[in-house]
Design a protein that fits this description.
The two termini are about 20 Å apart. The chain is an alpha/beta fold and about 325 residues long. The strands form 4 sheets. Strands 5-6-7-10-11-12 form a 6-stranded parallel β-sheet. Strands 1-2-3-4 form a 4-stranded antiparallel β-sheet, with no helix packed on it. A two-stranded antiparallel sheet has the order 8-9. The protein has 8 helices and 14 strands. The structure holds zinc ion (ZN) (2 copies).
């Protein structure tokens, strides 16, 4: 559904101009005004990335995230807690295997809320050898959406013999090269729907030179396209020192050139971050040339207009 209406200037909204395109946000709806005065307004896209207290570094339960999402005007979201994994993989940052049933129950509790559609998802780390577990476990669950993530470039055993992630920010080019090699391996497994926070290493240290970055990123985007994977615009970077979304606008443009679909995620680790900075993210997607975003049900992707208004009532009746 397309809507053309002028809400700019009403209420206590925000108005901005980015690269000559006017945009405004009023009552959780964004409006974009192009040069000729055409204005498009819609609700924000679904937030497909948030966590729970089960991962030991986030707060709250899915129902709290769902309420917060609904309160800020979102009509759809996905819970994507860090996946359980066999010991000894990084137990400090994920739920335990025997907590997964509780996670499923909590997501069901959120799905019972009116006014917001809640998808059952997971953020699954790729690491060397993970297919032995994930290859069997992921398809056995009734997930709507599986994010694939790399958080570290190598793992070390600590004193308790747990595998803990390490990111070596001193070796800039080496670390970025290892990171993107892992993203390509992740894509090649065919286990994931979407690549999360694609250029995350910029959080931990400097970027490589632009030509090196390009030589690493483009083949990695090709691997995502080959695997028919989507790409997440992750707004958590606006809360980090890097102060921009993952990935950069340049990478979003290259992704769009390859026909890689996008979805949006706040990566909320507390409920009040749901939908955070989504207006900026939508604007960036439009600047990168995107007109559509991806929506998921039971791991099947449907493309929607970036400015479409979801019709909750109609879909509930199906
Ligand atoms: Zn986390
Ligand atoms: Zn992550």
């Amino acid at each position: 559904m397309w809507r053309t209406e002028s809400k700019a200037g009403r209420g206590d909204g925000v108005q901005c101009s980015v690269f000559g395109i006017q945009w405004s946000v009023v009552d959780s709806r964004y409006s974009v005004t192009y040069g000729a005065g055409m204005e498009i307004s819609s609700v924000l896209p679904p937030d497909y990335h948030c966590h729970t207290l089960l991962c030991k570094h986030a707060e709250g339960r899915p129902v709290e995230y769902a309420r917060a999402a609904r309160d800020c005007g979102l009509t759809e979201m996905a819970c994507t807690e860090h996946n359980p994994a066999p010991e000894p993989f990084d137990p400090e940052h994920r739920m335990d295997l025997d907590e997964f049933a509780r996670y499923r129950e909590w997501v069901s509790e959120a799905q019972a809320l009116d006014g917001i559609r809640v998808l059952f998802g997971i953020e699954a780390d790729y690491y060397e050898g993970c297919e032995a577990f994930l290859g069997k476990w992921l398809p056995e669950q009734d997930f709507d959406y599986v994010l694939g993530s790399i958080h570290y470039t190598r793992y070390e055993r600590d004193n308790g013999h747990r595998l803990t992630g390490v990111f070596d920010a001193n070796d800039v080019e080496g670390s970025w090269a290892r990171y993107f090699a892992l993203v390509r391996e992740l894509a090649a497994t065919g286990l994931y729907d979407v690549s999360a926070h694609f250029d995350l290493p910029k959080r931990f240290g400097p970027l490589p030179k632009p030509d090196v970055m390009e030589s690493l990123v483009k083949p990695t985007l090709d691997a995502l396209a080959q695997a028919d994977m989507g790409l997440e615009i992750n707004t958590s970077g606006f809360t980090h020192d890097v102060n921009e979304q993952y990935p950069s606008l340049t990478i979003l443009r290259w992704a769009n050139e390859r026909g890689i679909p996008i979805s949006f995620g706040s990566d909320a680790h507390r409920p009040e971050r749901m939908g955070g900075d989504f207006e900026r993210a939508v604007q960036l997607a439009i600047e990168a040339g995107y007109t559509e975003r991806a929506e998921y049900r039971k791991r099947v992707r449907t493309m929607r207009s970036l400015t479409a208004t979801p019709d909750l009532a109609k879909e509930s009746a199906e």
